[in-house]
Amino acid sequence: MLDTRPRRTFAVISHPDAGKSTITEALALHARAINEAGAVHGKGDRKATVSDWMAMEKARGISITSAALQFEYRDHVINLVDTPGHSDFSEDTYRVLSAVDSAVMLVDAGKGLEPQTLKLFRVCALRGIPVITVINKWDRPGLSPLELMDMIERQIKLRPTPLTWPVGEAGDFRGVLDRRTGDFIKYTRTAGGATIAPEKRMASDEVEENDLLVWHNAVEEHELLELDEADHDQERFLAGETTPVMFASALQNFGVAQLLDLLLELAPAPGPTEGVDGTVRQPEDEFSAFVFKVQSGMNNAHRDRLAYARIVSGEFERGMVVTHASTGRPFATKFAQTVFGRETTSVEQAYPGDIIGLVNANALRVGDTIFTGPKIEYAGVPSFAPEHFRTVSAGDIGRFKQFRKGIEQLDQEGVVQVLRSDLRGDQNPVLAAVGPLQFEVVEDRMLNEFNSPIRFSRLDYQVARLTDAAGAEALKGMRGCEVLQRSDGTHVVLFTDNWRANATARDNPSITLEALPAGG
Ligand code: GDP
């Protein structure tokens, strides 16, 4: 049966501790109108159980892959794509954002914009992903709302257009002023936030006596914002020039229904997507999807590889045979599944905006396109400028086979970029990372998954540029740089510093030297 319900596919971006797990659970709670969240989160360690999507899947009948959470709200299907937390922060996080149509930026009212939020936001800007901002934890003392707006405008160069405005300062949260209707949405505290907080809506002349003083302050500030033309404009939002802002307390479930309504109202539905050759697929065209995340070791016994793909167009049906764009080979999707932990559920059908997990996907790499019908290939996922370089070699030469296999696997998963040259051979490739944490992941996985201890040596490079075959040839042997190749064939030139990279470009105008966007 064709599921034509509209989709919204988004990610929550935030610095650790801003409340991502809390709001994720609150969103699912609202979406399924279940009265007691306590069934999912125990009293003790809320955090551990909150992020346990498996439990949510069972309790609420929502469908989850370990990459995305799917639920229904007002006859829409919502896909919330997970962005990894701080500990495994790497290029992976950036790639995940290629699978969404919009992002919700969660800001801690007390802390303002934090480093990881800024980084993730930059990726959204680069990819033109519209961002809705939620100022969270308004039930606690925090910064003033105008100060927060100023931070957003100055630090991320987005014009904030608040849709609601807090009534009562942070820590004295009475509710919000709905700037589009002029209504007061009153916040009622519920014990522990276990149930959906009633959001009582009333006209401005119904505001009660004891709220009047703070209400008038809010109205005054709202009028200031109006004069400053800080009102929502859908076109500018979609163009990535403005960000609608709302105020919430995820822990108390306040603002969560407003956020869901906003996602339905403002966030873009899956749209047409352009391939590298300029042809465009509309969502209703034949099936196509691209892989944005590859994961292995979910099942240690089989060491099967799972490829997560975002559907761009058409209807996916389990068992269909698709074409793998980069090799032209057929790929059977017999085992399309949602997988969490050890349990698997088959996906029978999926639609544009949905995320599917393809099992036994050993041929698929991050960025790959699969399709039916006429050929289409998407640009896939962005690549960011690596700024950290090390050579890697087997710590135990008796395990060289494991070493080679492990490095190849981690390369295909995109855990780190592996750069090779004839000179270095297979024994001594260069690993290039956007963040140094990626090296720790490599070390850990090589040892524990592939049984191969490794040795790193530092390299005196700081800058990478891309070149073509002619450039690679011309630069070979030149001082202060080294020419290597990624497994996708791209030629990468490493320089000791920016000065030398720029000087080389200046002295050799005929050589292509392309910089990648900064990710760090
Ligand atoms: P994550 O690291 O972004 O997933 O953050 P969590 O959802 O785990 O939240 C971090 C901490 O902030 C937890 O102790 C939450 O209970 C708390 N928290 C989250 N949202 C709110 C909120 O709206 N108000 C208050 N007071 N605390 C919150």
Automatic annotation (TrEMBL):
Keywords: Cytoplasm, GTP-binding, Nucleotide-binding, Protein biosynthesis. Residues 5-273 form the Tr-type G domain. It is found in: Cytoplasm. It comes from the Bacteria. Its main location: cytoplasm. It holds the Pfam family GTP_EFTU. GTP binds at D82, T83, P84, G85, H86. Belongs to the TRAFAC class translation factor GTPase superfamily. Classic translation factor GTPase family. PrfC subfamily. Increases the formation of ribosomal termination complexes and stimulates activities of RF-1 and RF-2. It binds guanine nucleotides and has strong preference for UGA stop codons. It may interact directly with the ribosome. The stimulation of RF-1 and RF-2 is significantly reduced by GTP and GDP, but not by GMP. This is Peptide chain release factor 3. It comes from Nocardioides daphniae.
